[in-house]
Specification:
Arc Repressor Mutant, subunit A; binds zinc ion; alpha+beta; three-stranded mixed sheet
Length: 165
């Protein structure tokens, strides 16, 4: 199976290697286009975040980086995360205080996240009507400079019995 995941949960057994390779390619392109420097350290942190579709916290990243033998100063990891967030390469899941890779880096967006309460997998959705409704509500409230992410907790198809809806 060689599916590209752009909405909904990644099916079990999908070629996740492909998700990682695609994510790293996109990151390289986006950074080159913006003149942003994707240093080896930033690449490494992004790769670790993409190691699965489960969000990973800063502390988990620091631990994993330290396991590879090198000494990693936490501020280095926080700076790498700031860079990845600022360039839209990752999103922060506020309720988990953890990070996931963005599968659609190219555009600014107000994503929605489906968070499985059982296995912890997260799927990013881009439902235009949701984004439009938030934008309209913010506009009519005279609210500016906002950013939004919607977090929805439930059970993923795999945990719900492996039958796709
Ligand atoms: Zn994957
Ligand atoms: Zn995204
Ligand atoms: Zn699940």
């Amino acid at each position: 199976m060689d599916l590209r995941i752009t909405g909904g949960f990644a099916p079990p057994g999908h070629n996740h290697r492909r998700c990682i390779v695609d994510a790293m390619d996109r990151a390289a392109q986006v950074c080159a286009a913006r003149g942003a420097r994707l240093t080896p350290q930033r690449r490494r942190v992004l790769e670790l975040i993409w190691s699965s579709h489960k969000p990973v916290g800063a502390y988990g990243l620091i631990e994993q980086l330290s396991e590879s033998g090198q000494q990693v100063a936490p501020p280095t990891v926080y700076r790498a995360l700031d860079f990845l967030l600022a360039n839209g390469l990752v999103h922060r899941i506020e309720r988990l205080n953890a990070f996931v890779g963005c599968p659609e880096v190219e555009q600014d967006h107000a994503p929605q996240f489906l968070i499985c309460g059982d296995c912890g997998d997260v799927a990013e959705l881009r439902e235009q009507s949701v984004e439009a409704a938030i934008a309209a509500g913010a506009r009519s409230a005279g609210f500016v400079g906002w950013r939004a992410s919607v977090e929805v907790v439930g059970v993923c198809p795999e945990c719900a019995g492996g039958i796709s809806p």
